[in-house]
Design goal:
The complex is a heterodimer.
Chain A lengths: L1 H11 L6 H28 L10
Chain B lengths: L4 H19 L1 H4 L1 H8 L3 H9 L5 H15 L1 H20 L4 H11 L5 H10 L7 H27 L3 H22 L6 H10 L2 H9 L1 H31 L1 H6 L4 H22 L1 H14 L14 H26 L3 H23 L2 H4 L4 H11 L3 H11 L6 H20 L15 H7 L1
Helix pairs in contact in B: 1-8, 1-9, 1-10, 5-6, 5-8, 5-20, 6-7, 6-8, 6-10, 8-9, 8-20, 9-15, 9-16, 13-15, 13-17, 13-18, 13-20, 13-21, 13-22, 15-18, 16-17, 16-18, 17-18, 17-22, 21-22
The chains are: A mainly alpha, B mainly alpha.
Chain lengths: 56, 436
């Protein structure tokens, strides 16, 4: 049990490597794209103007 | 050969993206194929469903092969075979032969577990959630990108699309073979290869925690693919008057509106998946363990809690979808659907942030079992949704009679404070000793 707890604490203190911040930037960009495309598509649909991009 | 784990991640993402593009390319051109061969509705349905036929068994075999022969060789083989058959299908004039060839091309979908295994062999425990999330989430976009881009690029000329998809797949296969490396160290690769036997597979399949993760993935990814097929019909029938009131008319208008509401779920479920992996890493980093029953002292305990929260969210949103439907509110239903897509992404990302950590020595076999068997759930849910007396009530039935028991089983299987992998259906000491 003691070993497991120690490992958890050890995991907390490991600093991230340089690639990690770029990875987080990419995933945030993907979330923004998802929100923007869905927002646009739903706006078009709820106003009777069309649907997902390319499906008007 | 000198390489970096980010290069390996990029190779895996590109390979997986292209495989998903090929996997769903048949669906993107199904109206053109149906018009060319004068297919009936039944034949069209059969063509659409054929995409998923090979997934359960194919993923199990692919996972084992990734452990045995290494991810680069396995991935290159999948890309080569699917690419070559895709090229052949571009020149086929018989529908029967085309159908058979497209079923073979759909094998590309099994590449998911190979990429999961590849990424797991390169990234460290504290960053595995984000790495696997970026792989799976970004690669998954291939399905949506295909639906949006292929008909625009090629119009109704599916022959040209299948040809180019195949040619580029062969190029990616060569790149994967040349630049891909199975693991960060020879020792790790040798260990995984050594464990890739029948005994090791039996070990994984019989573990309570592996079964719980498989069910969790059936509850998330299984639901995602089931909803892709079910939701357009649901909105068309369940909100017919409301959609007409928005200004849409005729079958084509209904299809556009219903298809858009359905796509929102799929889109959010794919693109929020990397964020879920990041959240799993964040839970791990902060040591958050808010749920009762689930282990709190395991090295990856916070990740177990993140997945537990995700499963609760899916159950709640399923019940909410029934409530919104019974209220007759189209706007509320779509809002709940967005929340459901995000919740699904939380669970899919959360599951594969755990798999490599729980089954460090056999990530391919574990990914194959958890990512393969669970896809069968995609066939079950629509049948239950359609069987109720009210089209809106099926979600609540599934939530109550399937998702609540699955979530409780997950809590139960994740309660062990030491090595949950040692507890399973087969409590054979020799099996555990051999596999540990």
């Amino acid at each position: 049990m003691q070993t497991d707890t120690t490992e958890v604490i050890a995991t907390h203190s490991i600093p991230h490597e340089p690639w990690y911040k770029y990875g987080v930037a990419v995933l945030l960009l993907e979330m923004v794209i998802a929100a923007a495309v869905c927002g646009y598509a739903l706006y078009m649909t709820f106003h009777g103007l069309g649907g997902f991009p390319g499906k008007h | 050969m000198k390489t970096h784990k980010v290069e390996q991640l990029i190779i895996a993402i590109v390979g997986f993206f292209w495989c998903f593009l090929m996997w769903f390319s048949t669906a993107a051109f199904s109206p053109s194929i149906a018009a060319h061969y004068h297919l009936s509705i039944k034949a069209l349905g059969l063509l659409a469903s054929s995409a998923i036929w090979m997934a359960p068994i194919g993923r199990i075999i692919a996972g084992w092969a990734a452990d045995r022969f290494g991810a680069p060789r396995t991935f290159a083989l999948i890309l080569s075979v699917c690419g070559a058959v895709s090229i052949a299908s571009a020149y086929t004039t018989s529908y029967k032969l085309l159908f058979a060839e497209r079923v073979i091309v759909a094998i590309a979908g099994v590449s998911f577990v190979v990429g999961i295994q590849h990424v797991a062999q390169w990234f460290k425990d504290h960053e595995i959630g984000t790495a696997e999330g970026l792989f799976a989430g970004t690669g998954n976009v291939g399905a949506g990108a295909g639906a949006l881009a292929l008909p625009r690029l090629f119009g109704t000329n599916y022959h040209a699309a299948f040809l180019w998809l195949g040619v580029i797949a062969l190029g990616i296969a060569a790149w994967y073979l040349v630049r891909g490396q199975a693991a960060s160290s020879v020792a790790q690769q040798a260990l995984v290869r050594k464990q890739s036997n029948l005994r090791g597979t039996l070990f994984v399949w019989s573990r309570f925690i592996a079964i719980a993760l498989m069910l969790a993935y059936a509850m998330s990814f299984g639901l995602e693919i089931a909803m892709n097929a079910w939701l357009p019909g649901y909105f068309t029938r369940g909100f017919h008057a409301e959609i007409l009131a928005l200004g849409f008319s005729g079958v084509a208008g209904l299809q556009i509106a219903a298809g858009t509401f359905a796509a929102v779920q799929s889109f959010t479920a794919s693109l929020f998946r990397p964020f879920s992996g990041f959240m799993s890493d964040l839970f791990q980093r902060k040591g958050w363990t808010p749920l009762p029953l689930i282990a709190k002292t395991l090295p990856y305990a916070p990740r177990l809690h993140w997945l537990g929260l995700s499963l609760i969210l899916i159950t709640v949103t399923m019940g909410s979808l029934t409530v919104a439907g019974l209220m007759g509110s189209l706007h509320l239903s779509v809002l709940v659907l967005v929340a459901m897509g995000v919740s699904i992404s939380f669970a899919t990302g959360g599951t594969f942030a755990l798999v490599p950590l729980l089954f460090h020595d056999r990530p391919g076999a574990a990914a194959g079992f958890i990512g393969g068997v669970s896809t069968a759930a995609g066939i079950v849910y629509p049948l239950i949704f359609a069987s109720g007396h009210n089209i809106h009530s099926g979600y609540a039935y599934v939530a109550l009679y399937m998702f609540v028991p699955i979530t409780l089983f997950y809590f139960w299987a994740a309660r062990y404070e030491r090595a949950p992998q040692e507890h399973g259906l087969i409590e054979h000491r020799e099996l555990v000793a051999e596999a540990a």
